[in-house]
Amino acid sequence: MAPALTEAERAIAAGAEGEGAAMAMRIVAEAARLLSAPRLIPIASAHIDGALYHGDSGTLFAEKLVAGGARVAVRATLNVGALDLTGCAQIRLSGAPREMARRMMAAYAALGCEPSWTCAPYQAGHRPAFGTDVAWGESNAVAFCNSVLGARTNRYGDFLDIACAITGRAPDCGLHRPENRRARFVFDVSGLDPALLATETAWPVLGSLYGREASETVGVVTGVPADPGGDALKAFGAAAASSGAVGLFHIAGVTPEAPDLETALGGDLPERVVRVDAAMFRQSRSRLSTAETPDFVDAVAIGSPHLSEAEFEALERLLAGRRVAIPFYACTGRHVVAALDRDGRRSALEAQGVTIVADTCVVVTPILRELAGGVLMTNSGKFAHYAPGNTGYAALYGSLADCVESAVAGRPVFAEQAA
Amino acid sequence: MSAARAEILVEGRGGAGEALVLTAPISFWGGVDPATGTIADVRHPQHGACVSGRMLFVPGTIGSSSASAVLMELVHRGIAPAALILHEPDAILLLGLIVAREMGWETPVAVRMDRERFTAFTGKHVSVGAEITAASPVVAELHAASAKRWAQVYETLAR
Lengths: 419, 159
What we know:
Chain A is built from 16 helices and 14 strands. Chain A is an alpha/beta fold. Chain A is globular. Chain B starts with a strand and ends with a strand.
């Protein structure tokens, strides 16, 4: 059924504000029809995932919007592109694809999007208020925005994200509606050692397990004794949104729509309770590694989602001035690079052998050298999930400390594992 | 001869061709090579088959929200399926056709049909065409009441 458009929306779709805005409005209205949304609703902001080059057609689309005079109507940050425009890292993309990727990034900037080029916009100053409707893309950003900030977004993808930003509207359906945000299953981690929950690796490992259990269902995590902090929630959501289609999760006592378990469940009984034990945790952790014989490592990559300043501080502490023996990529946004540059920390890290990658990351564009049978070590659940398919490297999962010690030694080094 | 009614999800060029009936859900991003139309996911049962020019029966989709970008790239390169027959109206995938149409590129029609009916078309030469509503007053009435548009999916003789 076609959505009911207001008179103003119909006028825009007919070209009252130019051909670019008209095209954007028609795309949002058609998406609403396919999603069975009865109407469009106003949005407060957008995060655009559509500027990553997949082929020339996407570039031509963005340039057609620019030529049609379109501009974003709300604040719109940009997710990663295929190039590092800061020049921190070398991208192995050349010829026509490189030029088309560059043109695509330029077109999105010309539409009025902020050149944030990060998958962690919520750590770069873009934090919509609780309860506001927004249109965000990039699975980890969607999960964080819904779950940790309590703003409301569906999982917006290529084309629809920018069309929503230009029209300032989104189809009224899914997670925009309060009744669809209630948890339907419980993910109980109270059976795990609280000391384990205080470790960095607990969150990507649990997120990966949660995503497989949840698929598209909203759930609530219970048994978390204390707020694990933004970086841990970022890692949990990214891993969950990689292994499942997770757009929203709750953590009882931690996230804003879950002051307690009963509220998260909306007063209903859960359809299912998953009780996580130490064996499930160990199995989920080992699933993150695909390397069959973890006796060598060719490169280390961290920063999916992009590293925060606090995570760089942890990296610097663990490196303690030592030099790495193998390629080591630290992916982040230019908001953090600017901070690192202010006090010479980037050049210090580079002197220790660390390659800082800004605006993009190692699983979305060719950065790692081509290496059949290569092994990539990471502390990121999301890198571990996507590296084998997107880079050809097998994944080897470890804590940040393990990644640093392995990079310095040039071979896998694991501290004794908890749990 | 097999034939079925199907709701039109996105209008486009009606087509004819050999059916490619997928037997498992597919992720277009990472699962279909946008440069060749080949099913690249090694775990997919139809791995290695090419979707280009085929009547593509899709029982379900999984994965990334960049599926629309892959489908639009196939259209732009002239290697899209001849028609899409979906079990569910997957908005993310179909957005690829909607945007391609906005770009002025010719897009294949996409229709909805229950996946239980898919197997009847396996290995057949299939056409998707507009339904002749005048021949069936009941259908015409249904059509007017639901504001839905219908197509006919039917087996034809290969030329």
